[in-house]
Amino acid sequence: MTKPMKFIRNPLSMALASALLVQSCALPSIATRAPQVQLPDHFSAHRKADDAVADYAEPESVNINWAEWFNDPQLAELVQVAVTNNQEVAVLAQRINMAANEVYARDGEYLPRVTAGIAADTEKVGEYTRDGAVEEQLDIKEGKAFPDPLANLRLGLNASWELDIWHKLRDASKVASLEYMASVEGRRFFITQLVSEVSRCYYELLALDNKLAILDSTIAVQKNVINTIHALKQYGRSSSLPIARFTAEVKKNESERFLIEQDIVEKENTLNLLLGRTPQPIPRSSEVLMNDVIRAPNVGVPSELLANRSDIKQAELALAAANLNIDVAKANFYPSFDLKAGVGLSSFDASYLLHVPESLAYSLSADIFAPLINRRAIEAVYQNASAEQVQAAYEYELALVRAVAEVSNSLSKMNKLAQSAAAKSQQIASLEQSVDVASRLFASAHGEYLEVLLAQREALEARSELIETRQQQMTALVDLYQALGGGWES
Questions:
Q1: What's the pLDDT score for residue 319?
Q2: Which residues constitute the domain of residue 356?
Q3: Same structural domain for residues 294 and 319?
Q4: Per-residue pLDDT averaged across 113-139, rounded?
Q5: CATH code at position 449
Q6: Exposed, middle or buried, 114 (CB in 10 Å: 0-12/13-18/19+)?
Q7: What is the pLDDT of residue 94?
Q8: Are 155 and 344 in contact (CB under 8 A)?
Q9: How far is CA 38 from CA 306, 310, 351, in A?
Q10: What is the pTM of this model?
Q11: Do 406 and 453 share a domain, yes or no?
Q12: Distance (Å, rounded) from C-alpha 161 to C-alpha 166?
């Protein structure tokens, strides 16, 4: 440890300091962007005036409650398992922990650093060097030998502190805090997506179950028709041709049944993957898909998306961090102020180390440095901070536009699917009536078997289409839940 150096006040040092300050103020020009999205007053569901459905876009405050939107205890249990066990959710939790550690680290950067320790070294210098000549003169003057080799023992404290005059370090800490909060919102957004995906898979599974049940019912009816044809054949009122045609139709439906069973297995495995577990049966009540009444939820107004959607809040926090990061990058052009100090005991012999005040040593220094020549690195960082801010602004705008579009699409989809389901139900009622009439006419020898076969086939297709429409309705409700920001609380 050395004695403190005195500041030299002369015109040269003053001129150098002035040059540093002037040079540090010469900043390259950058571009920034403020978000330029104007949210509409209401959602547009693209409805016609004569649509005989509820007004989904009624501007009432939205209060999303997952349990009320999807009134299915078995689905709720599956969602809870997914949120708890999903590996990607666990990975995001660790990223949040790392972001929190980054905040903790940056908070300490603008505080003084103090270190304590012991150091020892030894040195043998050449006799004909400057240090060797000094030692030789001391030997002659004092009349005693200079220690050779010369040891040096040190015991003490050292402190350093960068004065955060330009708020560079504190702003960097705030940037880390904003990034941490953005990571929290990112995890919430992922959980909303996970809940939605589990719900979609669940309703797709229910649709497959209902298709399988419809096929089984149709196969049973067709086998009964075959038995009836056999009876008619005994009385000479039919031939082998209708038996062959209906038997072929049964086999066609049985083949389709095997494919649906395979789809069920794959869909169950997909759902188990989302739940973070190995393949196993999924408990469910298949009749829920066709029996539940789909209620028209309140969606509020577009401005509520700012508070409800985690991806918008994440983009907003990222934009705030990018704005502040420009100030951090700008501060790199300004002079940095460092204070350094040390105090302790120093001696060339351990026996003298504790002889105070003779062994006491201390130091104090202050540094002012600013980039003067070849500032390409910090200029690049500054330009990148500008580009990141513009990028964050565009991403925030995109998040807003996408959110409004998703809600509007979901509202329109729910509306059109409700109309489609109503029309499809009327079609099925007519087809069932036609199947009944064709069957009675054929049994009384007043109709052709092809009419029965065609009516049954059309009825089966219509029922399958209604199941798909119903599943799409539930999926649209899930999409609307996600578009409005979700509401799952684990």
A1: 96
A2: 1-30+113-163+336-369
A3: yes
A4: 77
A5: 1.20.1600.10
A6: exposed
A7: 92
A8: yes
A9: 12, 19, 79
A10: 0.80
A11: yes
A12: 14
